[in-house]
User: Fold these one by one.
Assistant:
Number 1:
Amino acid sequence: MNPLPRPEAAAVSTNAQLFERAQQSIPGGVNSPVRAFRAVGGTPRFITRAEGAYIWDAEGQRYIDYIGSWGPMILGHGHPAVLEAVLAAARDGFSFGAPTEREVELAEAIIGLVPSIEQVRLVSSGTEAGMSAIRLARGATGRSKIIKFEGCYHGHADALLVKAGSGLATFGHPTSAGVPAEVVQHTLVLEYNNVEQIEAAFQAHGKDIACVMIEPIAGNMNFVRASVPFVKRIRELCDQHGALFIFDEVMTGFRVALGSAQSLYAKAIPGFTPDISVFGKVIGGGMPLAAFASSRRIMQNLAPLGPVYQAGTLSGNPVATACGLATLKEISKPGFHEALGAKTRRLMTGLKAAADAAGVPFSVDSEGGMFGFFFMPELPQNYQQVMTTDQARFNRFFHGMLERGVYLAPALYEAGFTSAALSDADLDATLAAAKDVLAQA
Ligand SMILES: *Cc1c(COP(=O)(O)O)cnc(C)c1O
């Protein structure tokens, strides 16, 4: 139950009217581009409220939510224990700009769940965490060059808005106006899951490479796993050349497994750990909160102990940390990720069966509470392959599902998310809608 009184919302504006109005005062009508539905066309839904597995739009239409605010809402919306923790924290004060015990508790909770971590610095967004992790890696190694992979997103820091150059010897080109070429001249962009390319890059630049940053399961080109041999080889190359390996777990952290994606790779590669981990989304439970974390030795480089500057007025915010802590406590209960993973697999198996029955080429993958499906017969291994997916078919599927009350990510290059609030009936309803839509696709 929601303890906050809520004024009866009369549906005074349609989604289309709100979108029209929004575009007057906000560029494109949205505060983050993917919300604008540009990839799929049509009118974005203006959301008025959410509860459990559902969200409602301004027209009173209910949707089963498979975005979950792009990852944070792993428990579903308005989980009673989380809501209680947030309300209690808010009553005690919104922000102090001074240390609090709850920040320490959250850092300790993260350290307790992820063995590679000895210290944590809390920030407010994944962008900030990724940007700071790179600064830390450069500061700790005294080197400038960084490697990222095509299709991986690590936030919108200048040095990361890059696409591959024309050859291996050349560094990247900015993908956004406003980013000078000089700012990305140290960023090398390689193909995901391509062992030969990363070997060649280390051969050419090994002594200058500060870090390799990766989404271990890429969720910003739909859902693509880094292969075990690929991750293992990067680990070896980093060790040989003195570079740091950064796992961007903003999306995968505490969602694909309680120990995050790195726990899955540690099972396949004995002793595996990244050097620096980046978190966001789930650790804030829907509040603006993110973190970067590493060994004590590497974290010593950060101000006020070391020369790498980093700061934030709202960092470790007391309401956000309450939300994150309550969320982590719930998902740490025995069997949580197993149960969530079973729901996700049931959804994916059902979608695949519906596509097969309709004769539609389709492939699926999932881990814990994160999934991907593709209108292609085989799972893609990199960005180029993802982008060969049948765009028109995806768009028809997206809109067909939306009309039937199922809210999927409005772009084929985004992963999907499940929550613990999804019931069997919700999954059945989703699959019935999919069967219907795919039969017409
Ligand atoms: C969402 C995301 C980010 C950026 O986080 P924001 O909170 O949106 O700034 C960074 N890395 C990955 C892998 C993400 O999915």
Number 2:
Amino acid sequence: MRRLLGWALCLMLLAPGLTRAEQALLGLPPVPVPENNPQTPEKIALGDKLFHDQRFSSTGEVSCATCHDVQKAFTDSPLKVSEGIEKLTGTRNAPTVINSAYYTTLFWDGRSPDLEDQSIHPFVNPVEMGLANHEPILAIVRNDPEYVAAFQQVFGKSGEQITLTEVIQAIAAFERTIVAGDTPFDRWYFAGDGRGMSTAAKRGFEVFIGQGRCVSCHVIEQTQALFTDNRFHNIGVGINNIQQEVPELAGAFLKAKAEGIDVDVAVLTDSKTSELGRFAITDQFDDMGAFKTSTLRNIALTAPYMHDGSLATLRDVVVHYNNGGFSKEGEQVNAFLSGGIRPLNLSEQQIDDLVAFMETLTSPQFVQTASAERN
Ligand code: HEC
Ligand code: HEC
């Protein structure tokens, strides 16, 4: 119920008669929508229902929303790595679905090309929703009267005509409405209204674009800010600790891949394989330990951080960068570290200011749902 209430709050912030994808929010470009999957209100509502349906898991207890919960800014914060069926744990931290419509690839290693393809995988991942194949989903949507009516209305299809394609299209259409801009930062930077920005946050912005060099990957443009370059970088998280094993791990992985293992399953069930990052997709050593630059929008609500959830707070993140790509005393940076990561020589105050800046990237609807949950 709370989830629905929270969601209704978000919907109330929309101008009547517009679906979110059509409405550009302050700080964000219009949402890209593929030609073969246009947005309609009915399709979005169907996708919302599918996203929350726990029957699409082997135990009947896990839905997409289990790990992407609106009350937690569409993550499972404060979990380090996600828990699926029977509390089985994966290897990676659940990224937010908010603004994922803007990414040019999905997942931390970019192994999926679009939102439609992305949602195929969790259903059948053994540590997520655990289905053996997609047939149980089709059995439900072809027979449950509410779904039968909805698929007929949205796609003009029934019975065997309904396939996984329609299911994933509806989910993706729903996800393309989970967009959020209009933060205190957006109002200040793009609309000249600085009321939500403290002096510390403004100083933090200067560090972000200056000495901290954050903006070189977490991009801010003249009229919009996605806070990502949609590229992959090794910033020294995770792989620093296993670098001696990399040649052996890489060799074993390439062999297994040639033999046809499922990469989605491999990276989410083996923590060392997970650390290969983008390499596991491209087989290029340049991509070793590299992960997708995350958006920083709503970052204050989604701790812990990084692909493995290894950094607990935003301050820990900034200290990691300030050190030049390591977190713990005595840790050696790995040989594949991005050239963009080097010691920053930030003062304690600059570190605090950067954190204050990142705290201004929270969209109003998620502040409201987070505080509604606390009450
Ligand atoms: C058990 C928890 C869990 C469930 C259930 C789950 N996810 Fe996720 N989701 C994750 C994790 C963890 C990742 C990151 C995995 C990776 O990058 O390898 C992720 C990644 C994503 C991404 C990519 C975001 C980005 O920044 O690239 C999207 C979109 C997403 N999930 C949507 C869904 C949808 C839709 C469903 C239901 C069909 C779903 N998830 C089910 C945990 C979960
Ligand atoms: C060379 C590119 C690059 C630079 C420079 C950079 N980042 Fe990142 N950032 C990334 C990548 C890539 C990730 C994801 C890495 C991972 O999970 O292993 C990330 C992750 C993060 C995260 C965690 C996101 C999440 O959802 O868990 C935060 C916060 C962050 N960066 C803040 C900053 C700040 C602040 C600076 C400047 C001090 C900065 N970044 C500089 C590329 C960069």
Number 3:
Amino acid sequence: MSLKTLVTSPISGFALFVLFLALLLRFSITSQRLFTTEELALFNGTDPGLPILIGILGSVFDVTKGKSHYGPGGGYHHFAGRDASRAFFSGNFTGDGLTDSLRGLSSTEVKSVVDWRDFYLRSYKPVGKLVGRYYDSRGNPTKYLKGVEAKAARGAQLLEKQKIEEAKQPQCSSKWSQDEGGEVWCDVGYPRLVKRPIEIALTGKMSKRCACFEESQLGQPGLEVYEGCDYNANRCKV
Ligand SMILES: *[C@@H]1O[C@H](CO)[C@@H](O)[C@H](O)[C@H]1NC(C)=O
Ligand SMILES: *[C@@H]1O[C@H](CO)[C@@H](O)[C@H](O)[C@H]1NC(C)=O
């Protein structure tokens, strides 16, 4: 029987189709390998014969191509062989800093961790899921993961709102150098410090930004002249 008749004969065509499905299924299963914490720990980069894996929000990625960063002695070696989701935000690699819990983080902080996961999705090969906080023993997302994703979406909305608000009042130009320190200036208008109200909802902390106001706006409440800077100056040392 020639290949052509094999493929076109209805029964072997069906068999090939089943074979194809089986391969597809096998592929999707192997690309969705489930890891326990202990299994993932073996891929910490110390054994050069094994790939280097990291977990973030329960998704496991093969980062072997970034060996210089993730291998022993690399700046990101702390992430190898574990899920240290929180440290992507905190940069704290000591003790409990290396946890996958995002407890107590604000919505934008949670969003920054989700953004990191999306970076790995774009840049590295996903190889499976870590069973635990983010995925259950069947590889399905847990309530915790859904909660994290919902919180990150709220963070994204708040940031978008802040961006729209702040676009209404142009930002100061700024520069900084070791010798001269910092400077802010406005090509049009005068630099003033203003509160960022949405920031409180975002991080629980009040922060300020520099925005440019025209002469007619300078009487608005809440505008702060830089310390040591003239009321009418359009450049201020900071
Ligand atoms: C790192 O991985 C090696 C094997 O690849 C394993 O023997 C070792 O226990 C792991 N280290 C930790 C801290 O899990
Ligand atoms: C890192 O996290 C640990 C445990 O939560 C904490 O004790 C330590 O103070 C943190 N370090 C920094 C630099 O935040």
Number 4:
Amino acid sequence: MIRNANEQVKQLCGRPCRIRVEPGTRRRAKLEMHPPNTLRVLVPKHMKSHEIQRVIQNGEPWIEEQLRSFDAMGIRPYRFASGDLLWYRGRQYSLEVEPQNGSPEVFCQPEAKKIIVRHAPSDPDTVRRLLEHWYSRQARELLPQRAAVYQGRLHVKPAGFTITGARKRWGSCSPKGRLSFSWLLMMMPDEIIDYVVVHELCHLLEMNHSRKFWSCVGRIVPDWRRHYHWLQTQGRRYHWPLPQ
Ligand SMILES: [Zn+2]
């Protein structure tokens, strides 16, 4: 099945995978595996299709390893329909989609362990878009609040905040002192959110990962190593599909 010129669904390692080929200015091909089953193939602009096939073939052992690790983390594709399990601040909620006319509503009901989307139409693309807006709105509210808790202790002040949809880059700090955070962080436990916020605030003092930088992080988050390791090993559990 071909969805567009650069994306197709193919059997890889014994299961259907979405393969997206993205030509760009890079000099060497690179494979990226995105949960639950998307293989992103970043290639030089004029790479021939048989060469691309070879890159994918050579990558199969690695792809299989990635798919196995997704399985082990219990990663499932979303349907963006009632019954999906969604993460929010480290807890799992069941999605309930209620087709309803009027302006769209998305809200969390912690007691019922539900995230409710009220909107018509309620097709998967619309539900997904509404959820993305909801998560980014939560991030825009919470992350500056969490930064405010720590910036006084570190004697720093960010120039501003940007919320992104980055899949792996949970946070970053620009040379001008602007902090960016991915809204995907909103799925993770609060202690991880705080660690990422502190990490980026410390970059306002140290624009590197030197010993001095980590000792700055350690002053606020003494067990930062545990969080760092958690993000490396568990971060991908909190996935979201790439835009179509
Ligand atoms: Zn860093």
